[in-house]
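Milestone 3.1: sequence recovery, worked example.
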C-alpha cells in the first residue's frame, strides 16, 4: 500500500510539474449555429446554395494545422476532387492546384463546416482544386492580427512537404478565396506579403467577394460605410467606435489597400451593387491594383445579396475560370 501511495504521489507531482510547461488547449467557438453563416438570415436558395455537390468528393475533417501561443487549436477541412476532376486539373506530375477557403462572419463568428461554407469547399473541389477550408480565431476573444496570422499559418502548413505529399498539392499553385470578413483576410493575404508567390504564406491568386478591404476611418467615410460596418470593424480591431486613424493605427495594418504593390498576385474582386459593404470599397481596391500593374477582374452583380450569396452559377464560373487561368499560369512560369 505504501508503495502504491508513493507511486500515486509521484504521478500527481509529475502531472503538476508538466502542466507548467504545456498550454491549455481550446477550440474555436463559432458562436452558435444561428450565426454560423453570413447567409443564415435568409432561407432563399441564392448564391452558393444553388450548388449541389457531385459524388466522389473526399473530405478530411478537422485536420489540425497549428496551435497558437494562446492555446487555440487551429483546424481546417480538406475537400479533395473526385477522380474525374483530378484528371482535369492535375499537371503532368499528378499535382493539383489548391485554394485556401476563408469563411466570413464579421471576424466574430462563422465556421468552416457550416452548410454554406462546406458547400464552397465542395464546389472548389468539384472544379479540380484541393480546397482547404480554414477556421481562424474570432473577435472579441482575440483582435487583429490574430485572424490573418492564422490564415497565413494555414498556407505555410499546406506547403509543408508532408502535406504536399498527402494531398498531392503543387506548392506553386496555391490560391485563396474568401467572402465578407473572409474576403478581407484573403485580400490581405494577397497584398501584405513579400517575396515569391510560391513560398511561405504567399499565394499565386486571390478571389474575394464582398470584402471590406479598406478599414481606415478615412476609407470608411469616403465609401459611406454604415454604423453597423463601422461597429464591427472597431470590435475586430479593438478600437473605440468612431476613433480616427491616429487613435487606431491597426486599421491601416488590417487593410489590404495599404500594401498594394506590383509584386501582388492577380485578383478577382466580386461585389453586389446594393449590398451591406459599400461598392466603393471594391471599386477603389480594383483601381489601386490596376494602377500598381496587378491584374484584376472586377465583377459587379445587381442586387443586395452579400458574400457567397452572390456566388451563383454565373459568378462561380467566373471565379473558377479566373483561378484556373492564374494558377495554371503560375505553374507554367516555373
Amino acid at each position: 500500500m505504501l508503495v502504491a501511495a508513493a507511486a500515486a504521489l509521484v504521478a500527481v507531482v509529475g502531472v503538476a510539474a508538466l502542466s507548467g510547461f504545456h498550454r491549455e488547449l481550446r477550440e474555436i467557438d463559432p458562436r452558435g449555429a444561428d450565426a454560423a453563416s453570413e447567409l443564415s438570415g435568409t432561407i432563399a436558395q441564392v448564391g452558393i446554395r444553388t450548388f449541389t455537390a457531385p459524388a466522389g468528393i473526399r473530405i478530411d475533417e478537422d485536420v489540425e494545422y497549428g496551435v497558437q501561443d494562446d492555446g487555440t487549436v487551429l483546424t481546417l477541412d480538406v475537400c479533395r476532387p473526385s477522380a474525374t476532376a483530378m484528371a482535369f486539373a492535375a499537371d503532368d506530375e499528378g499535382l493539383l492546384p489548391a485554394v485556401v477557403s476563408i469563411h466570413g462572419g464579421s471576424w466574430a463568428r462563422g465556421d468552416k463546416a457550416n452548410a454554406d461554407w462546406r458547400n464552397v469547399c465542395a464546389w472548389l473541389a468539384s472544379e479540380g482544386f484541393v480546397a482547404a477550408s480554414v477556421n481562424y480565431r474570432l473577435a472579441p476573444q482575440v483582435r487583429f492580427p490574430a485572424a490573418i496570422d492564422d490564415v497565413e499559418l494555414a498556407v505555410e502548413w499546406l506547403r509543408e512537404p508532408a502535406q504536399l505529399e498527402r494531398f498531392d498539392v503543387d506548392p506553386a499553385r496555391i490560391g485563396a478565396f474568401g467572402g465578407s470578413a473572409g474576403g478581407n483576410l484573403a485580400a490581405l493575404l494577397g497584398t501584405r506579403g513579400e517575396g515569391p508567390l510560391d513560398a511561405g504564406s504567399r499565394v499565386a491568386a486571390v478571389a474575394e467577394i464582398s470584402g471590406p478591404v479598406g478599414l481606415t476611418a478615412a476609407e470608411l467615410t469616403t465609401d459611406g460605410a454604415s454604423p453597423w460596418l463601422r461597429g464591427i470593424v472597431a470590435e475586430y480591431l479593438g478600437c473605440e467606435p468612431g476613433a480616427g486613424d491616429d487613435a487606431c493605427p491597426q486599421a491601416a495594418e488590417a487593410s489590404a489597400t495599404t500594401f498594394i504593390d506590383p509584386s501582388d498576385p492577380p485578383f478577382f474582386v466580386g461585389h453586389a451593387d446594393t449590398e451591406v459593404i459599400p461598392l466603393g470599397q471594391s471599386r477603389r481596391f480594383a483601381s489601386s491594383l490596376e494602377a500598381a500593374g496587378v491584374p484584376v477582374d472586377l465583377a459587379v452583380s445587381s442586387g443586395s445579396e452579400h458574400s457567397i450569396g452572390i456566388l451563383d452559377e454565373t459568378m462561380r464560373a467566373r471565379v473558377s475560370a479566373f483561378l484556373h487561368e492564374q494558377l495554371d499560369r503560375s505553374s507554367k512560369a516555373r
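The radius of gyration is 21 Å. Residues 1-23 have pLDDT under 50 and may be disordered.
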